[in-house]
Structure formats: structure tokens, C-alpha cells
């Protein structure tokens, strides 16, 4: 019976672990995860002319600033700011329907799929990160 | 004065120099003995100005109090002029020392220790001669000549008296002769009657010879008549002598009392001295002016004598001397007002005394200036020209540091305040429509201070009110209709007066005043915030009040001043408002949030965000279901690109 070189285990296991971790972490930092097929949302464009964005869906990574309003049976309006400030840094209102089912706290960060309905950003799906 | 003269010298009509004394009605009897004739209220110039009756020298009535008696010095105008003339005139000229020495010499010559039975006539003659020497001095005013004339008259009366006495003696001698003749004739008649009764009877039983039985009776009757005529002539001479003596006494005493009351004390003393040597001891009692002299000595059963008159004259002279010494001392200490007061009193007590007449002109001139200022001050007080009193009081204080002006100013200020309060009361009454009360209050204010400018102003307002009313009402209505609140506010006082009786318009005016007042307060607040480097909050205030007062010029100016400082903020707010008007609540909310990022403390931004967020939350589901884009997008919708 051939004997496996112990050096193989000593080097192979850490390398495997590193590879697995990189496979998990790199996609996250590289903007990966859910909604990667959507265009990133531009706060500046929205503020400048929301009408040109109507009907479109975007991926919007944001952090909760404040809950502005809550309507029983309908949902809530959150004030959020983008985590990526390259496309605008200002706060925008975000409507989260009750069906989203999440609990929101100030400071939490989410990846959202948002759609511009008339002038309103409506969250269709989201993922906390 | 006439009534006093009547009571005083009813029968001495020739006492032309006598200035009667009379009790002053209401005058305080003060400054009693000891030569202290200062006013009891001399410390209070306010009383001196407004209550002259309390003065020791009463300029209003022309009287002076001394030893509790009031001397009438003539009418007030003449008294003032005389004192002013004294202050303005130079010191009396001539050799005053020599004049006084001459008068003193006369007194000495006639003194009781000098005059004896042997030299009585020589003394009279020597004193008489000196009277002419004294009369040569200007300051004497020829009063010594008056005494000399009086003495000469007594001498003439005395000669006349002697002639009457001789005549009487001669008549007495004649009467005795006539008496002897009557007796002789009566005896002869009796003898004839006896011889007739003893003659022999005839045969027929009758008398042998018939003689006249009434022989000598007729002559006897004539002789008796002659004797009786002579007796009557003697009695007439006696009566004439008595009357002559009495007349001499009365004339002399009148002259003496006249000098006393004319305040020529030295002449009074000389007259008194002459009287003593001219008249016998039994005639030394006072017949003229006894009542008035007694009033100086408040002692019951007091018997006035020549010595009483002497005492009064000497005491007055002493007081004058003391008074002038006080005047000079006060002057040297710089207390000009006190010096002036004492000089005034001393002058009227002894204006003919050498010490008064010879007072230095320079000092008198200073007091003359003070006197004129005081008279002007009194005139202002009499006319209640309160506005100018203070200036004059200060002027007098400048001249005389001891002038008690504080009391006057206090009274003046009280009067001014009272008058102003009355005017205020009149205004309030007028505004409330109570005309009677307004008139009463205005009358009170005018009485206290006739020249009160507030009274004049109020009177003008009342007079022009009716005229203005007819113009102001249409103007007010027009401004209100054109919403010219600022202009109404600027003329609020005029409108308030004109519309006082018009309640609906007054209420409208009050509303406008409050509105513009609030607007001004907000403008002020915005200006302060802007100056404190807080332009966004200032803009919030401006925007808020602009919603209600968009046409106000002052607000517009303030807005234009602040606008450049908040251009981005203003643009965002303007955009938000525009979006909201167009139905883009979410976009408006976004714009408001952007504005809030610039001005986190803005209450208006906070309120708008809160309001729009609620609205968006409520209408979000509806929006989500809506398919029609509003507003219509012009540009193409960017297609999301996959990664």
C-alpha cells in the first residue's frame, strides 16, 4: 500500500479551506450575490429625473437611515442612503411592502431589487448583508 | 392806605409825610422783637414767589412787616420802582461823615445833660443854626429845614403868646381901674341916698329940698358894662393862649411822628429833642399818634411818651445797622440771594439811613441783576409758564448759589406732571367718546399749565379730527380693499384717531396692525438668523410668512437679501413644491429630503418629509398598481443592463 505523503495533507487542507472561503467571500465583495443581473441604482439619476427611470428594476445596496412612515396593511417608507456613493450619496425614500416580511432597524444594510413605479422606489425583493 | 390814614391821623391833615401803618389782611404777624424782622417763610422761595403775603417785604401790596406791624410803603409798583432805583443808583454823594456828625452834634446840644435853665435859649439857637448846616447836605433832603421851620414857628407862637399875655395883663389892669370907678360911683350914689334921707322936714310935713333921687345911676351902669367887656376880653385872650399852645404842641408832635413813620429816624430824634426844650414838662405827653405808638408795645396800660418814640427810632436805626452789616457779610460769603433779601428788608426799614444810602454801587448792581431775574422768574410763575421756569431758576442759581431753587423746580415738575396727566385723561375720554369728561380734563390741564404743548397738540387734533374723518375713512377702505396692509400700518395713529368712533373699522385696523406687527417680527427674526450665519433657517421663516404676505415690500426686500445665500436650498424647496403640485409626492419627498440634508434643523423640511412620507405610504399600493406613467416620460427608459 502506497503511503500518502504527509506533506500533501499539511499543504492541501489549508489550500482547500482558502479556496472554499474565497469561493464564498469574493463574490460578495465583488458585488455578487442576489440581483447581480440587475443594473445598479443611481441616486443622482433618480433625483435628477425620476421620470426616465419609470418601470425599470434596479439593484440597490443601501443602509437604513430612518423609517419615515408605516401604513398598516400596506408597508413602510424608509429613508435610505446608498452604500456605494459613486452614483449619488443623498438619501432617498424607499417603499417596502408589507409582503417583504423583514424587520428593519436603523443602520442595517440590504441588497434590494427596486422598481421605479411612477416616481416611487418600490422594493420587490431584498437581502440583508 | 386811605382808611388807615383816616384811622391814624384823623385830625392831622397836614402830616403829609406820614405813611400810615395798617394791619395787613391775612398777613402773618412774625419777626417779633430783637430786631429780627426776617420773614418766617424766608427759607422757601417757592412760597415767596407764589404766596407773597408771607413775606416780611410784600412787593405785591407794597407793605413791610417790622416788629409785628405792617408798614404800608405805598403802592407796589412805586415800591418796586423805588427799590430798583436804589439798586441802580450810585452811592449817595457828599460828606456823609460830616453830615452824621452835624446831626449828632444837634442831638448833643439839645441833650438833657447839656441844656440847663441858664443856657436853654443859647442851646436852642445853636442847634437851630446847625440845622441849616445839615440841610446843606444832599442826603438830608432839606428835612432839617422843615425842623427849623417848625422850631421857628414855635418861637413865633411863643412871642405871640407873650404879646397875648401882655395884653391880658393890661386888660386886667384896666379892669381893676374900671372896677375901682364902679365902686366909687356906687359909694357916691349910696351917700347921696343917705343925705336925702337925713334932710329936715317942712311945715307941711314934707322935705325942705327935693333933690334928684337917681343921680349917678346911669353912669354907674355904663361903668359896670365897661368892666364886664374888659373881663370878657381877658377870658378871650386866655382861650386864645391855650389854643395857641395846643396848636404848637400838635404841630410839633405831628412832625415828629411823621418823621418816624417816614423812617427818617435821625430827624425824628432831633425833633423830639427840640420838643423837650421848647415845651414845658407838663406838655411832654404824646397827643398825636399815641395809638400807633402803643401798637409797637404790646403791653396793656402802656402810656406812650416822647421817650417811646425815641426808643422806636433808635431801635430801628440799630436794626438797619445790623441789617447792612449782615448784607455785606452775606455778600462777601458769596450768598448773593441772602444778601439781596436782607438788603431789601433793610432798605424798606431804613432807606434814609446813611449806611443804606452809602452802600457800594458795584454790589448793588449785582443785586439789581439778580432782582431783575427774580422778577422775571416771578412773572413766569404768575403766568404759569412752567417750561421756562426751570431755565430761569438755573440762571438765578448761576448768580446766587444760595438760591433755593429745588423747591420751585419740585413744584414745577409736579405741576407739569399733573397737567400732562390731565391731558392724557382728556385723550382717553375723547377716544372713548366721553366729550364732557374730555373737556373737563382739558380745562384742568390748561388751568395748571396754560402753555402745555400737549394741550395745544390735543386741541389741534380735536379741531382737525372732523376734517380728517371725512378723508380718512374712504382712504382706509381703499387701502383695505387693495390689501395695502403696510401702508395702513404706517398710518395707524391717524387712522386710530379718525376711526375711534367706528367700531367695525377700528377692529379691522387692529387686525391689520397685529398682522403687520407679526410680519415685522418674523422679518426681524429672519434677519437675525441670517446675520447669525444661519441662512437656511432664515429662509424657512421667509418662505413660511411669504405664504401669507407675499405682497409685502419689506418682506420682498428681506427675501431678496437672503436668497443668494441659500440658492441651492431654495431651488430644492421650489422643486419639491412644484413636484408636489404635479402629484409627484415621492419625488417631492426626495427633494425635501435633499433639502433636509442641507438644513437638518429645518422644521419646515421635517414637517414636509413627515407629511409626504405618510402620503406616500398611503398611496404606494395604488401607485404600484398604476400602469400609466405620470408625468409622461420624454426620454427613453434606460434598459437595465446585465452584468
Tell me what you see in this structure.
The complex is a heterodimer of chains A (129) and B (643). Chain A has 129 residues and is an alpha+beta fold. Chain A contains two helices and six strands, in the order αβαβββββ. In chain A, β2 and β3 form a beta hairpin. Among the domains of chain B are: 182 residues, no CATH class; 155 residues; 62 residues. Chain B contains 25 helices and three strands. A three-stranded antiparallel sheet of chain B has the order 1-2-3. The longest helix of chain B is centred in the first third of the chain and has 56 residues. The termini of chain B are far apart. The N terminus and C terminus of chain B are likely disordered. The chains are: A alpha+beta (129), B mainly alpha (643). At the A-B interface, β2, β3, β4 and β6 of A face α24 and α25 of B.
CATH homologous superfamily label of one domain in chain A: Nucleic acid-binding proteins
Separation, N- and C-terminal Cα atoms of chain A:
49 Å
Number of strands of chain A: 6
Q: Which percent range describes the beta-strand content of chain B?
A: under 5%
Q: What gross morphology of chain B would you assign?
A: rod-shaped
Pairing-aware structural class of the strands and helices of chain B?
mainly alpha
Helix content of chain A: 10-25%
Helix tally of chain A? 2
Named CATH topology of one domain in chain A: OB fold (Dihydrolipoamide Acetyltransferase, E2P)
CATH second-level architecture of one domain in chain A: Beta Barrel
State the main characteristics.
A: 129 residues; alpha+beta; OB fold (Dihydrolipoamide Acetyltransferase, E2P); 2 helices; 23% helix; elongated; B: 643 residues; mainly alpha; three-stranded antiparallel β-sheet; disordered N terminus; disordered C terminus
Short description:
The complex is a heterodimer of chains A (129) and B (643). Chain A has 129 residues and is an alpha+beta fold.
Question: How does the SSE layout of this entry go?
Answer:
The complex is a heterodimer of chains A (129) and B (643).
Chain A: H1 6-29, E1 39-40, H2 43-48, E2 57-71, E3 75-82, E4 92-97, E5 109-117, E6 120-128
Parallel strand pairs in A: 1-2
Antiparallel strand pairs in A: 2-3, 2-5, 3-4, 5-6
Chain B: H1 2-8, H2 45-50, E1 57-58, E2 63-66, E3 69-72, H3 76-88, H4 96-109, H5 120-135, H6 143-198, H7 217-261, H8 265-278, H9 290-295, H10 306-332, H11 336-350, H12 354-357, H13 361-382, H14 386-399, H15 405-431, H16 435-448, H17 453-481, H18 485-490, H19 492-498, H20 503-531, H21 535-546, H22 553-562, H23 567-581, H24 585-598, H25 603-625
Helix pairs in contact in B: 3-13, 4-5, 5-6, 6-7, 6-8, 7-8, 8-10, 10-11, 11-13, 13-14, 14-15, 15-16, 17-19, 20-21, 20-22, 21-22, 23-24, 24-25
